[in-house]
Design brief:
Elements: E1 4-9, H1 13-24, H2 26-33, E2 37-43, H3 47-54, E3 59-61, H4 64-69, E4 75-78, H5 85-95, E5 99-102, H6 105-122, E6 126-127, H7 138-145, E7 151-157, H8 160-172, H9 176-185, H10 194-197, H11 200-214, E8 224-225, H12 233-241, E9 244-255, E10 258-269, E11 281-288, E12 292-299, H13 303-320, E13 351-361, H14 366-376, E14 381-388, E15 399-406, E16 409-410, H15 411-422, E17 432-436
Parallel strand pairs: 1-2, 1-4, 2-3, 4-5, 5-6, 8-10, 10-17
Antiparallel strand pairs: 7-9, 7-11, 9-10, 11-12, 13-15, 13-16, 13-17, 14-15
Helix pairs in contact: 1-13, 2-13, 5-6, 6-11, 8-9, 14-15
The structure holds NADPH dihydro-nicotinamide-adenine-dinucleotide phosphate and L-homoserine.
Length: 440
Amino acid sequence: MKPIQVGLLGIGTVGSGTFNVLKRNQQDIQGRAGRGIEITMVADLDVARAQSVVGPDVKVVNDARAVIANPDIDIVIELIGGYGIAKALVLEAIAAGKHVVTANKALLAVHGTEIFAAASAKGVMVAFEAAVAGGIPIIKALREGLTANRIQWIAGIINGTTNFILSEMRDKGLDFDVVLKEAQRLGYAEADPTFDIEGVDAAHKVTLMSAIAFGIPVQFDKAYVEGITKLGAADIKYAEQLGYRIKLLGITKRTPAGIELRVHPTLVPAKRLIANVEGAMNAVMAHGDAVGTTLYYGKGAGSEPTASAVIADLVDITRLHTADAAQRVPHLAFQPDAISNTPVLAMSEVVTSYYLRLRVADEAGVLAKVTGLLAEAGISIDAVLQREADEISGEAATQTDVIILTHDCAEAKMNAALAQMQALPTVLQPITRIRKEELA
Ligand code: NDP
Ligand code: HSE
């Protein structure tokens, strides 16, 4: 059978990995797909560089629309990124009846509903394994491998840049800014690294997983997003002393009131496997009622790890290309008429436990006042630790850090208690609040 023809839009980090892996493993890939898969046309702004990657036999153009317009192209891979031209090109490719593969989590998390609807109407597939956790086949696992389950929760380290930064800060005592520069040099960070460090990239990814796990539309605008820029070295150290590590987690949970969808720094017990995922590696835990807790680990970024996921999508599409559209795996795991309107909860409604750090005057009665306010609010304390504030040598005798771990309570209740504690004259700095998950 004639090879399926693929057009590639954007041949940067992931695009070049895709081209190279497809070429290198051509025979095995064909054996699995049942048909050859060939990238026959590439669009990139830098035509000369693109041509040097693909060699003289592949047509390279600088106009992505020429690829979409080519009637021989069956599948379009979008590896440009962002919401701008990428969105227009994906919608145009769908309108032209092409299947689409993309690694663009930002695009799908924000415009996924429109894109999937357009694809369903046209009877084409939009595949996005590479958009979440790079080389880890987590979309496949959630959408197909766990299909028997009522999924209860997912928690993942799904941004390599921030995990690298947190690991280096903890291991080497390095400053945030120094480690961020290193992450950019190593190519982990997004074009705009604020997406990484402010939690936006992780929120894009957990939004997609949430939709697949719970059969709800993609709703990035409902996600609570908090990054790692305000984390201090002191909190990383205190968490360690209490038996926890701090990770930037993307969390989505089914609760009786609705779906939790959130990204924030999280204390995780140091004994959990996920707490020991270091550097730029990713890991996702998914808990289903039948299977229990499962864990997926691997490289969440990089040229060939991400290409591995892009090519898996190419193979899936090649196998299902001729199948009736109704027989294909639905984009969001559930058939369009089974997508539910279960609400995504506001952060104030989320129930979790907390780590609090208060810089207080080292005087009699201060701790009693603080714990008294928590008791009045009905918030139960799990552990208390008091430490000298070692970074302020001259005043060390008059100030101290009090660290409190609480049991579960609603975020709104904690917000009210924090406001009262903050107003105490003996609380000398803004209180640090980090959420805690046992992931048992
Ligand atoms: P790169 O910036 O390395 O590559 C993007 C390429 O697209 C560049 O070669 C760029 O050319 C080209 N391009 C830009 N505009 C156009 C256009 N209008 N027409 C044709 N080509 C264009 O990005 P990545 O490969 O890192 O990322 C691609 C996508 O994959 C993004 O959505 C990203 O979020 C996602 N992703 C990336 C991962 C990674 O590890 N890098 C991991 C998982 C997902 P030029 O350089 O000349 O501007
Ligand atoms: N910037 C992302 C990360 C790339 O650091 O994980 C993979 O999506």
